[in-house]
Amino acid sequence: MSRDEAADMVNSFLGVDRNVVMGHFAKMNGLHLKHSDVEDIYSVNHGLADKVVAEGKSAHEIKLYRDRSIRAFLLFLVCCTIFSNKSSYYVDVVYLQYFQDLSAVREWNWGAAALVHLQHYLDDACLVTVNQMAGYMSLLQGLIISHFPGLSVWAQDPIYSEGMPRNAKFVPGAGHREPSSYRNSLDNIQTYDCVFSPYDDHRHVRPLINSCWFSGWLRCGNLKAKHLPERVLRQFKHVQGIPRKPDLFATPGMSLCEIDRVFMEELDLRMISEEMRGQAVVSAWDHEPGYMTWFYKVSHPVMRPVQAPASPPRPPNLEVLIEAAEARNDPNMLQVCRGVRDEVERSLREGEAVEGTPVHGTLRKILNLLNPVLTCRRLKRGRGRRYNTRE
After folding, report:
1. Per-chain mean pLDDT for the chain
2. CA 313 to CA 389: how far, in whole Å?
3. pTM of the entire structure?
């Protein structure tokens, strides 16, 4: 949008003189208005609306000033929440176009727009050179508290009821000053520390709509983000398996027009089917065979540096996985090998096999095969306790 187009829009929708708008743009060096300017626009139009009502003016004139004050309020609202930027003192006037027809405001997909903006800034925040973040931070904070209730300091709002948005439930506290506390908590997290599907008791208020299973690109304006529910099936109460490569449905390099066409024409084809969702979760640690191995290859399960002075943390779900293996009576292969070695040594020591016979030679070969394996395993475990953060 050019400056002339933006100035015309502000003049038409908010009633601000065009030259004044151009002066604001020049001061802000972009298509922006300061928060104080938007507050003044709201106050002026709200006062004019009250004035024309008191003077008994026409309904058209009353509606004109009321609509302008409503647009100013909504512009301020969305730019401080779902479209927040890193400045914290100005709004982008480009979003004013969504409030041209106030009767259509509820028809816009604000949820997808908020996700796209948040994902965009999350991508930027992953870069080592970035030290600030923007987007719908209240949504992100509410999601973190919902899934990891023990990670931060928070309390439940006493006036909250299930009919309200879920984010209204939390009153966050001060939290920790240093990131090391959060890193240590994440490194040592256990299954019982995570709430995988925290919205089950809220579904009667906000049902899970079918379009949530759409897999592909979402976009808002010039921003786009991947939406891949198959990578977080555990949040939908399905057993998590190794997901497909993201490029299969979110094709790299898709234009904005192509993204729109896919969403409008191929929505049903892009859904995660019942078969792809897999089995429902029974135990909190359920996962498909091979998933944890894949996860450790592609992710960063340990956040601490390799040179950490302290002992490395336990891998996620270690105790639960051990308990599950014991419940299934899985054989301990290392223990089995030790038992075989001890039995062979006992047999040779007590002379059960006469030296020089084929049986004696076979037992010696078995012992020679087992000893290097058990010695190597012992050395690896010793190194792992000191250096290997993935042990």
Report:
1. 83
2. 7
3. 0.70
